[in-house]
């Protein structure tokens, strides 16, 4: 298995695992108190931080992907794994069809979720060190 696929699987596993753990608390504790929309929105900053740190981790753990193209491939592969897993789990655990699951998403938290998925896909690329800062360090 290539290093890029391994990196994508690790990135996916860290983020999905964290989301699963947060969901265990969100659904029984937060949703009854503040509603589904606000519970999901409250989880988003935590997930954004996890995405940020997980992207940095895979870049350190798999230095072979620390190139713009490879980091994007790893991020988008992780996104594909995540979407497939989430849709599969939603259909299996919630006894809904795929169309029912997608249409049942809250418009506000669902929109933020989609934006966060895009951030998830590109974060490994965003976490790459910039060439300008490396040149400045060399010249100093």
Task: Give the arrangement of secondary structure elements.
Layout: H1 3-34, H2 36-61, H3 68-94, H4 98-104, H5 107-126, H6 131-139
Helix pairs in contact: 1-2, 1-3, 2-5, 3-5
What's the story with the biggest beta sheet?
none
How many helix segments? 6
Structural class: mainly alpha
Helix content: over 70%
Rg over CA atoms, rounded to whole Å, is 17 Å
Task: Describe the structure in your own words.
There is one protein chain. This protein has helices at residues 3-34, 36-61, 68-94, 98-104, 107-126, 131-139. It is mainly α and 140 residues long. It has one domain. Helix 1 packs antiparallel against helix 2 (36-61) and helix 2 (36-61) packs parallel to helix 5 (107-126). The protein is globular, with a radius of gyration of 17 Å. The termini are far apart. The model has no long low-confidence stretch (mean pLDDT 90).
Short description:
By secondary structure, this protein is mainly alpha-helical. It has helices spanning 3-34, 36-61, 68-94, 98-104, 107-126, 131-139.
Notable features of this structure?
single chain, 140 residues, mainly alpha, 6 helices
